[in-house]
Amino acid sequence: MRYGTIQARPGDAVTRAQGPPLATPDRAMLPGRRGGPALDVPSLVARARTWDPRAVGRLISMVENAGPELREVAAALAPHTGRAQVIGLTGPPGVGKSTTTTALVRSLRARDRRVGVLAVDPSSPFSGGALLGDRVRMQAHSGDRDVYIRSMATRGRLGGLAPATPQALRVLDAAGCDIVLVETVGGGQSELEIASLADTTLVLMAPGMGDGIQAAKAGILEVADIFVVNKADREGADQTVGDLRAMLSLGGRHAEPGAWRPPIIKTVASQEGDSGIDEVLDRLDEHRAWLASSGEGHRRRTDHVRREIEAIAIAGLRERLGNVHWSATLSSLAASVVAGETNPYRAADDLLGAL
pLDDT in tens for each of the 355 residues of the chain? Predict the structure, then answer.
């Protein structure tokens, strides 16, 4: 029997389905917690693959904390990933991203799909954790055994994603999610990084948000696979749709031969019934089929991983440069440049060679 999501850790509540009685989060015998048996990473991954929410939550915590187990977790997950469809939701503040996420989960569950949600929240200035957390999200799905919801903190990162998001996605993928929804913090240029992670990117707009359209002009249009004009029961919805169509007509990657042309869908995500959300899901299915048939899906995922490898390598270099030994080497090279004995490019080459 599949069990749903439970509270993965205090302060980061997720939903739980009916199943055997479970201890409260404070007393639960969680892996690696005081009072419970510490499980090794392969055992945790094996449990996660049976949709054990405690194991899923523990693995996500490991990748969030970027502790010594991180590389072992990544290695153990790798053979079991690549199946889930990753959908990113982005757009200016106030367009109803959380409401749309909730509506998407409801409709996806009606189609019998197991859903994971990573909701990226601003970081608490005190703890570094997710400021909003899951307690205020997605309460309509409490008790659903095939929904897992997790808030992740940006931890000071300027973009719309938490640093651990790529690896957290792999945890949910390996655990058996059919679809993982990634809801970002806000909108604007910083949100463009969602396109470097998602298979399909939904860009949300709402009527009367001139600043949002300006942000779209600045570049967010280029990352959209599907446009959603939410709150379409408000005045100005048709004008927003028209503005988006006019922008798409200007060209860009969508105008290339054989390219996917983003549909524009009006929704009222806050209402049940004919809200437009089912049409969004239909277009998501169409886009996934296009990604597979065109080869674009493989190209995107390869590009995503390439960017991830580069980021990990750069972070590793920065960490090494922070080491006392390499910091002294860097200072010595800088002094040589100031003295006119060498130049910055030669010094950088020498440093990279030494590393």
Answer: 333 433 343 334 344 333 333 332 332 334 444 444 556 999 999 999 999 999 999 999 999 888 889 999 999 999 999 999 999 998 888 899 989 999 999 999 999 999 999 988 654 333 334 434 443 445 667 678 899 999 887 655 545 566 788 999 999 999 999 999 999 876 555 567 788 899 999 999 999 876 556 555 556 777 899 999 999 999 999 999 998 888 888 777 777 888 899 999 999 999 888 899 999 999 999 999 999 999 999 999 999 999 999 988 988 888 887 776 788 888 999 999 999 999 999 999 998 888 7
| Nearest residue to 24 (alpha-carbon basis) of 5, 3, 4, 7 | 7
Per the structure, the complete domain to which residue 104 belongs is given by 82-294
Q: How far apart are CA 169 and CA 215, in angstroms?
A: 27
Residues 121 and 209 in one domain: yes
Last residue of a domain, one of 294, 314, 341: 294
Q: Is residue 345 part of a domain?
A: yes
Is there a domain that residue 170 lies in? yes
105: region left, alpha or beta (phi > 0 left; psi from -120 to 50 alpha): alpha
Residues 341 and 240 in one domain: no
> How many angstroms separate the CA atoms of 260 and 198, rounded?
15
Contacts of 102 (CB under 8 A, 6+ apart): 137, 138, 140, 141, 269
Q: Residue by residue, what is the 3-state secondary structure of 100-136? A: HHHHHHHHHHHCCCCEEEEEEECECCCCCCECCCHHH
In total, how many domains does the chain have? Answer: 2
The structure tokens listed for 326 are: 């390499």
Give the CATH number of the domain where residue 149 resides.
Answer: 3.40.50.300
With respect to residue 120, please indicate whether it lies within any of the assigned structural domains.
yes
CB 203 within 8 A of CB 90: yes
Q: Which of 246, 267, 294 represents a domain boundary (last residue)?
A: 294
Residue type, 260: W
